[in-house]
Amino acid sequence: MSERILLLHPGAMGSSIGASLRGNGHAVAWVREGRSAASAERARGAGLQPVATLREALAGIDHVISVCPPDAALAVAHQVTTAGFAGTYLDANAVSPASAREMHALLGDAFVDGGIVGPPAWKAGTTRLYLSAPKAAEVTRWFEGSATDARAIAGGAGAASALKMAYAAFTKGSAALLLAIRALAEREGVTAPLLEEWDLSQPGLARRSELTARGTSGKAWRFEGEMREIAATFQAAGLPGGFHEAAAEVYRRMRDLKDVEGGADLESVLEALLRDARHFV
Ligand SMILES: NC(=O)c1ccc[n+]([C@@H]2O[C@H](COP(=O)([O-])OP(=O)(O)OC[C@H]3O[C@@H](n4cnc5c(N)ncnc54)[C@H](OP(=O)(O)O)[C@@H]3O)[C@@H](O)[C@H]2O)c1
Q1: Nearest residue CA, atom 23 of ligand 1?
Q2: Where are the domains of the chain?
Q3: 5 CB under 6 A from ligand 1?
Q4: Which class is domain 162-279?
Q5: Tens digit of pLDDT for each residue in 229-275?
Q6: How far apart are CA 216 and CA 232, in angstroms?
Q7: Given the CA of residue 119, which atom of ligand 1 is nearest to it?
Q8: What is residue 278's predicted lDDT score, i.e. its pLDDT?
Q9: So what CATH class is 4-155?
Q10: Is 32 in the pocket of ligand 1 (CB under 6 A)?
Q11: Cys-Cys with 248: which of 77, 187, 227, 229 at CB 3.0–4.6 Å?
Q12: What is the pLDDT of residue 1?
């Protein structure tokens, strides 16, 4: 059955999720208001239907999927409920289980919690969309056979977000730690002997730190908010949140590298990390 879905918004990930739905024959709209030319271009490439305003879009659809920067997720959910929407609402953002439960309280059983693991879903086998809520199984059917591998998990609203937080705590948290270590060695003048020692006892780590700089620099502006959601998740579970508060600070210092073509190199990342090191507390 063809569903009418509104995708908020067509970023790198959102446009690929929209393309999966389009490939399955669903009608997918997006809202032009407030979005950049880059989002419009991605939406066009994914075959999504432009609509001028949120109100206009909500009048013609059955379901909403939110894929946006994590620190905007609650605001987007509020905009949609304020406009009187009562259909299925899937939040697929990297937010804490507490934020997901806040959205559940706002939207009731129409809410589906989601968490995405993997790169934008352009190829089968790369990207999982974890879902938890009474309606999770229904949502998995929208994606059947597409590049977005949608999987329902037990635990209700908050479970899919908790899984995403636990996953990204390691991937993005360890990436921030590795870059901070390279910056520390640089500041202390021990880069060369550290790299020699890594070659002896941690083979591959030097190369990994270079790839990490390139891979994270364009997205660091968005990772800062995600790290704070992870820190809050640890704290709410009675565990130390400091690891990811520090990771948030690492990514905050990298936020100006957003538009470097092809990603910034390690040298530029270290410069950004050390630039305001004096202000660090
Ligand atoms: N990219 C990945 O590899 C990946 C992997 C796993 C999970 N995710 C999750 O997917 C979500 C989005 O990631 P993405 O890669 O698609 O990000 P993105 O490429 O940066 O796109 C974000 C989208 O949200 C819009 N946006 C920007 N600021 C906003 C705001 N304040 N309020 C509402 N919308 C706003 C952007 O529009 P304009 O820029 O046009 O204003 C754009 O359309 C995040 O929750 C992320 O954790 C992404």
Answers
A1: 11
A2: 4-155, 162-279
A3: no
A4: mainly alpha
A5: 999 999 999 999 999 999 999 999 999 999 999 999 999 999 999 99
A6: 22
A7: 3
A8: 59
A9: alpha beta
A10: no
A11: 227
A12: 81
Residue of 128, 109, 103, 110 whose CA lies nearest to 118: 128
What is the atom index within ligand 1 of the atom nearest the CA of 9?
43
Structure tokens at 205: 């780590």
How far, in Å, is the centroid of ligand 1 from the Cα of 159?
A: 21
76 touches ligand 1 (CB under 6 Å): yes
Rounded CA separation 209/192 (Å) = 14
Look at the chain and count its residues.
281
- Angle subtended by helix axes 242-253 and 220-236, to nearest 10: 170
- pLDDT, one tens digit per residue, over 67-91 is 999 999 999 999 999 999 999 999 9
Per-residue pLDDT, 281: 46
Region of 115 (left: φ > 0; alpha: ψ -120 to 50; beta: rest) is: beta
Is 225 a pocket residue for ligand 1 (Cβ < 6 Å)? no
CB 19 within 8 A of CB 122: yes
